[in-house]
Amino acid sequence: MWKNFCSLLKKDFQIMVDGKFFLISLGSLILYTLFINFGYIRFVNDRLYNVYLYDPCGAFEQADKLIHPVESMEELNAALSTDTNGVGIDASLGVPEIILYVGKEKVDHHRADYALSLLQPGGKYTARITGTNTKELKQRKEMCCELLFIEIVAVGFLGIASVLFKEKQMGVIRVHGVLPLEMSLFLLSKMTIFLLSDLIFAALMAVLNIGPWVTAGILPAVLLQTAILSLLMALTGLGCAMLLNDFRQFSLAYLVIAFFVSVPVFFSANTSVKMAWIDWHPFYQIYMGLKNACFGTPVINPAYYIRCVCGIIFLFLIVQAAFRREMGKEG
Amino acid sequence: MKGLAYQLKSVRKDKFCIISFLLPIIVAVALHFTGGIDLSSIAEFHFGVLENDLSAPAVSWLERYGTVSIFKTQEELTAEINDPSTNVIGVKADGSNIRTMVSGDEIDLFCQTADTLPLLYAHREMAEQAEVTYLERSNIMEGLQNIFIAITLIAAMFMGCTFNAVNIISEKENGIDFVNQILPVTQSRLMLQKIFVGFAGGCLSAVLTACICFRLPPERIFLMLALIILSSFVAALVGLFIGKFSESLMTGVACIKVVMIVFMAVPVFFYFSGTGSLLWMLCYLVPSNAAFEGIMNLAEGGKQVIAKDMLLLMAHCVSWFLLYLSISGWKKAPVLSMVRIR
User: Fold this and answer.
1) Structural domain boundaries, residue A101
2) pLDDT by residue (tens digit) across A143-172?
3) Which pLDDT score, from 0 to 100, does residue B143 have?
4) Chain B positions in Cβ-Cβ contact with residue A100 (cut-off 8 Å)
5) How many Å from the N-terminal Cα to the C-terminal Cα in chain B?
6) Nearest Cβ partner of A272 from B42, B99, B277?
7) Fold of B40-129
8) What number is the ipTM of this complex?
9) What share of chain A is helix, strand, coil (3-state, %, to 5)?
């Protein structure tokens, strides 16, 4: 049995090499790494608003150095029209008058009050830090987790379909019906090869983008969550590929999964906007599991793991039934 | 003309093309009719306070700036502050003033807000007396939702590449590609037909999407139309490239996916990264970047910048077209004609 399994594994590996699956994964890895190291962490930042002061009388000479002094009202208006998030202070009459472009009400209150506070000299205060991550480390972990999720959900899902449709077209599945092989080996070999590929990808992503020392502490948890996601996606991909007639139909299912499933997950998980139904979204739970693992706080709730195992077994049974049906078409 | 009718008929029957065509329109309808998702809370600050710690006036004062969540224990508050998905600023009473807590991994905006909050609290009475003048923004599109609308429009414009790419790949898979080679049709005419298929699909999808989710004054409608036409033409050329280099539908779908991700991600990155760097200049190599910038500028009324975007898109049209000609070879004579075979 072990020998048969190894033969199947070798055959699947060859199909994936021929289908340029590993090449695409390597390309994705390089692209993601370049994006995180040279794009995301360098450019994603936002600072507080610029404050421009027109003070011809010199009433606020002790104002904070963060204030940009301007020489005329024209200059003040020009500065605000190019920097619409900025705040202008007109102190030409000796009392400060705040000028700003309207935005969100609560943010506008803060913009106005912040600008006024800079006019008064105040002691330097620094907020207490309660976390352990730095800004850069958080950005690296966050983006690494998101890209890993996209890679497994979108690219891996497409990869398994490409392998299976090729075999389906060649009639390999029907040939399996007359081979003296354990039926589940066919599915297990595919799951194993995709699982190994995803685990290696996850480890490399973490090492290259989060750093080897930090990764050492979180890798087991990250790999566990990757394995859960990988098995679920591989089985979903196998199921879709078995049940749907051709790749054209599969590509529609792929569009739905890649777009409508991932978007609310990213939206809920990365912003403070929470949709009431999102907790029922299975991909949200798994994404959060992966994200928490990346941030060193892995899920410890046994119910989550029981649900995942049940989900994997359930999908496996469906795929097995679909596989039987496909083999049965030969009669 | 008859050939073109056949091409369009073939695309019309393709479910993949129909879905690609409808997808941006469905998203536009969702954004327009449901009002999208309330994004206002993203721009606001979020504060976390302990139960029975801050005075009621202090909590009201915080609510002027954002939403305030109350936590029963210090552990719960710290967990919420440290949650990587949120940017909660913890606020506690400190005698007559307040003190703040942050996770330390937030972007500078939140750390600076936390650092300056006690000072703002100390000067709150002065702030209440100050006179504030609000200027109206000329921006038609508001908040983060603008980016969703612009990206949906970009997706619709560049989705045109799907139509002719899938059409070409299907012909390759079904062997029609070989039949085309013996038909009395020149390669150039066939190429123009394929460009038209992608161009028409992209244009129609983008126009419908723009009508649903974009409200523009009449004088800017023509500029938007010009942006759509130029972008759809580039998309059709991109579709030709994908069709040429993909031997199977699977490879084609993977290529379309990569192209669409790049075409949507680069403008968003460009939008948030600010101007000036070398990387920012390189972003213009992606045609959707000029289109995205054009859409955003159009909404803000900057006609001069739109001219730059139009020129960039025209340059893309010409260069992609010439590049395709140079690699495929422009042939006027039929490759093989039925007559010659007879």
Assistant:
1) 51-117
2) 899 889 888 887 777 777 777 777 777 777
3) 53
4) 132-135
5) 25
6) B42
7) D-Maltodextrin-Binding Protein; domain 2 (3.40.190)
8) 0.72
9) 70, 5, 25
Residue of higher predicted confidence among A330 and B157: B157
> What are the tens digits of pLDDT across the range B259-272?
887 888 888 777 76
**Beta-carbon contacts below 8 Å between A and B:** 213
Helix (H) or strand (E) holding A135: helix A135-150
Predicted confidence (pLDDT) per residue in B134-151, tens digit: 887 655 445 566 677 788
- The pLDDT of residue B339 is above 50: no
Which chain A residues contact residue B43 at CB under 8 A? 103-104, 107
Check if the beta carbon of residue B167 is closer than 8 Å to that of residue B10: yes
pLDDT single digits (tens) B294-305: 888 777 665 556
- A135: CB partners within 8 A, 6+ apart: A45, B104, B105, B106, B107, B108
Q: What is the pTM of this model?
A: 0.72
Count of domains in chain A? 2
Structure tokens at A96: 């400060």
What does the domain layout of chain B look like in residue ranges?
A: 2-35+143-341, 40-129
d(CA B10, CA B171): 10
Collect all residues of chain A within an 8 Å Cβ-Cβ radius of residue B112.
47-48
Residue A282 lies in a domain: yes
> A177 and A37, same structural domain?
yes
State whether A174 and A78 are in the same domain: no
Q: Is residue A4 part of a domain?
A: no
Kindly state whether residues A238 and A106 are assigned to the same domain.
no
- Distance of alpha carbon A231 from alpha carbon A228, whole angstroms: 5
The answer to whether residues A87 and A232 belong to one domain is no
Residues of chain B contacting A85 with CB distance shorter than 8 Å:
none
Q: CA B276 to CA B262: how far, in whole Å?
A: 21
**For the residues A198-208, what does the mean pLDDT come to?**
93
A105-149 per-position pLDDT tens digit: 788 888 888 888 888 776 777 888 888 888 888 888 888 998 898
Instruction: Name A89's bridge partners.
Output: A53, A98
**A178, A229: one domain:** yes
| CB-based contact B115 A106, cutoff 8 Å | no
| Cβ-nearest to A46 among B102, B109, B257 | B109
Read off the DSSP letter of residue A49: P
- For chain B, give the percent of residues with pLDDT over 70: 82
DSSP structural state of residue B113: H
Residue A2 counted as domain residue: no
